[in-house]
Design a protein that fits this description.
The strands form 2 sheets. The protein has a 7-stranded mixed β-sheet with strand order 1-3-2-4-6-7-5, sandwiched between helices. It contains 12 helices and 13 strands. The mean pLDDT is 94. The longest helix has 15 residues. It is an alpha/beta fold. The structure holds 2'-monophosphoadenosine-5'-diphosphate (ATR). 2'-monophosphoadenosine-5'-diphosphate (ATR) binds next to helix 6.
């Protein structure tokens, strides 16, 4: 049994399952993939509900996602998770795309069904569920600032907020152009009159904008989707003076558990949460796609806690 498998291991069942007690029938595909917590998350649930199914990590280079999915399907896999950098490429390699994945322009879950490859995205719905569980509020009722709106995670979260018709969406990115492109795609969601005129419901700002602190006045939820905070020495992605007691602050980073941003949120008297709930709920929703009706929430929660306990 290996920690990480490659596309060459998918040539036959005997090679893939060598030394293993049960057949691999689910996988997470990415590059690099060695750090992924998805196997811990799903294997615990599989052991509880679907004994005899193994979940593996699969390292797949860019350009080979279609071949990997083809081979998994031939080996009678149930499905797969797709992670960085393959969430876009996966859409090109399937037979059918669910509307959420289509809107978000990316897939994180594949289901093999009756000879067809179906693509879904549970990142967006997982985010909505995470915000509801953490703060007891609905995304649709909030004015939201997405920091890092040019990255893959930021685009998915922003697109979901737009689909939910949130009250206001402020897209912040270091490279303004990327946030502008995203805003152009999302603007049809903001055409209806709500709290403010259409022009003001969707706003784009560069991360170094001098007016950013004033802009944060006008939002309820601030979401960090940048990679700033992954290293313990990283600063906050936001300039100082932006956070206030009325803010809800969500950092999609979960390791380290407390980023500088979350520390500053605490000092400002704001409520905050890290990205563990997003990881949990996107995983739970994937599991429900593969095994409808099953709800391994507590099991998954426990396995994540164990995986992250030093
Ligand atoms: P992805 O593969 O999801 O695009 P990424 O390249 O790590 O991931 O970038 C994720 C986000 O973090 C982007 O919004 C990126 O900003 P740019 O679009 O300007 O590149 C943001 N980001 C990364 N490092 C940053 C930094 N040091 N300061 C501010 N934003 C940063």
């Amino acid at each position: 049994m290996k920690d990480v498998y490659t596309i060459d291991d998918l040539v036959s069942r005997s090679r893939l399952d060598e030394g293993a007690e049960s057949p691999a029938r689910l996988a997470v595909i990415g590059s690099p993939i060695a750090h992924s917590l998805s196997p811990q998350l799903h294997q615990a649930a599989l052991d509880q509900f679907q004994s005899g199914v193994r979940y593996i990590r699969l390292e797949v280079p860019p350009g080979k996602v279609a071949m990997a999915l083809e081979r998994l399907q031939r080996l009678e896999f149930i499905g797969a998770n797709i992670t960085v950098p393959h969430k876009f490429e996966a859409l090109e390699a399937v037979d059918e795309i669910d509307p959420a994945a289509s809107t978000l322009g990316a897939a994180n879950t594949i289901l093999f069904e009756e000879g067809r490859k179906l693509a879904f995205n549970t990142d967006g719905p997982g985010f909505v569920r995470a915000i509801r569980e953490e703060f007891l509020v609905d995304v649709k009722d909030l004015r939201i600032m997405v920091v890092g709106a040019g990255g893959g995670a930021g685009q998915a979260i922003a697109a979901q907020c737009a689909t939910e018709e949130c009250q206001r969406l402020v897209l912040v990115n270091r490279t303004l152009e990327k946030a502008r492109d995203l805003a152009a795609r999302l603007s049809p969601c903001f055409e209806s009159e709500r709290l403010e005129g259409p022009g003001q419901r969707l706003v784009v700002r560069p991360l170094d904008s001098p007016g950013l602190a004033a802009e944060t006045d006008q939002v309820d939820l601030i979401v960090n989707t940048t990679s700033v905070g992954l290293r313990r020495t990283d600063p906050s992605p936001l300039p100082s003076g932006c956070l206030q007691p009325h803010h809800l602050v969500y950092d999609t980073i979960y390791n380290p558990a407390q980023t500088r941003l979350l520390g500053e949120a605490f000092q400002a008297g704001a409520r905050s949460a890290n990205g563990l709930s997003l990881l949990l709920y996107q995983g739970l929703l994937s599991f429900e796609l593969w095994f409808p009706g099953q709800q391994p929430l507590e099991t998954m929660q426990l396995s994540l806690q164990q995986a992250l306990t030093p």
